[in-house]
Amino acid sequence: MHEWALAEAIISAVSDVAEREKLREVNSVVVVIGELQQVDRNILRFAIEQLKQGKLAGAKFIIRTERAVFTCRACGYKWPFRGTNLPEEVREIIHFIPETSHAYVRCPACGSPDFDLSGGRGVWIASVRGEG
Amino acid sequence: MSGKGGVGKSLIATTMALLLARDKFRVGLFDVDFTSPTTHVVLNAGGLKPIEEKGIVPPEVYGLKYMSLAFYLGGRALPLRGQELTNILLETLAYTIWGKLDALIVDMPPGISDLMLDMLKYVRRAEYLIVTTPSKMAFETVRKLIMLLKDLGAPVLGVIENMRFSDTEHIKREVETLGERYLGGIGYDMRLEESLGRLDNLLNTRFAAEVGAILRKIVYLKT
Ligand SMILES: Nc1ncnc2c1ncn2[C@@H]1O[C@H](COP(=O)(O)OP(=O)(O)OP(=O)(O)O)[C@@H](O)[C@H]1O
Ligand SMILES: [Mg+2]
Ligand SMILES: [Zn+2]
């Protein structure tokens, strides 16, 4: 993913919120990134620090990760993506097209490839705090 | 596209892409039969790897840009539910960097399927080439597909009759009755199987010559 473009989009979205909520100053922002999303968090953090200005200049940006979870459709068992033991190249493929996990992952309880993969995708702003 | 399976969609799509690339068109081939991709067999390209750089750069085979999930599956089966097909379509459409192309040929899975509905919904600029065989059973479903596409206002380029083995004209008449263009027939080619995966051979078959004649008609219609 393009971290600088993402940082710009985040800053612009937060500025819009600050404008709409008539904030004089933004104190803290929580950004959530799905664990399957290929974002280099360090570059993103750096880019945000470089780009924040005006009402956002003093804001603390907190970057959280949303975990991806498998739920077996055959037996109901749930397990986290993170705990799944996979070679690095397969992990990369799954990051990139999560549905390919059906070719590589099986339910640890019953062996089924018929599972649902939820969470872990997308980037969003969970909260913006500031002074009005 | 076809309502029916096994009528030759993948082989025709791949051959068309190869012929266009040979004539120096900028062409892409995108296999969206995600659970059962096959075009890599024709191209002998299953071992290729796309380059990942701010997206996926599709590898080139015989001058055409090629994208298939086969690159990522290592021959494994990929059992998917409907929504997952949609997700993959959107992910691959978003990430694949095709660059400037004269044509992107998309090989569809068989049937009046989730993926067909997704193509209609998300790929508004697509035009549809329909493949049938001379069999009444194949055309029974293909007719419904054509009527559906017409209803939805999707542009149909025409219908190809593949695997012909006699001179009957009933498919041509049926297609024209539906108000669509009959683009031509392709004979059943007994020697085709041995040319799969061997591109020079494939392009010299009678099959490829007949696909070429239909392709020229389409290019002529489009220019
Ligand atoms: N004109 C022809 N003569 C002989 N064999 C053919 C001809 N056209 C296609 N075939 C063969 O028929 C088989 C089915 O073709 P193909 O896989 O292209 O069909 P398809 O419509 O894509 O199938 P699916 O619906 O499963 O995607 C292949 O083995 C192919 O080589
Ligand atoms: Mg096919
Ligand atoms: Zn299970």
Notes on the protein architecture:
The complex is a heterodimer of chains A (132) and B (223). In chain A, β1, α2 and β2 (60-66) form a beta-alpha-beta unit. The model of chain A has no long low-confidence stretch (mean pLDDT 93). With 132 residues, chain A is an alpha+beta fold. Chain A has a single domain, classed as hypothetical protein PF0899 fold (2-Layer Sandwich). Chain A has helices at 3-20, 41-51, 88-96, 101-104; strands at 25-34, 60-66, 69-72, 78-80, 115-118, 123-131. A three-stranded mixed beta sheet of chain A has the order 2-1-6, covered by helices on one side. Chain A has a three-stranded antiparallel beta sheet with strand order 4-3-5, with no helix packed on it. In chain A, α1 crosses α2. Chain B is of the alpha/beta class and 223 residues long. Chain B has one domain (9-222): 3-Layer(aba) Sandwich (Rossmann fold). Chain B has nine helices and nine strands. Chain B has helices at residues 9-22, 39-43, 70-73, 82-95, 114-122, 136-152, 170-177, 199-203, 206-222, and strands spanning 27-31, 51-52, 56-57, 60-61, 64-68, 103-107, 128-132, 156-164, 182-187. In chain B, the strands form three sheets. In chain B, strands 4-5-1-6 form a four-stranded mixed beta sheet. Chain B has a three-stranded parallel beta sheet with strand order 7-8-9, sandwiched between helices. In chain B, α4 packs parallel to α5 (114-122). The longest helix of chain B has 17 residues, at 136-152. Chain B starts with 8 loop residues before the first helix and ends with a helix. Classes of the chains: A alpha+beta (132), B alpha/beta (223). At the A-B interface, α4 of A face α4 of B.
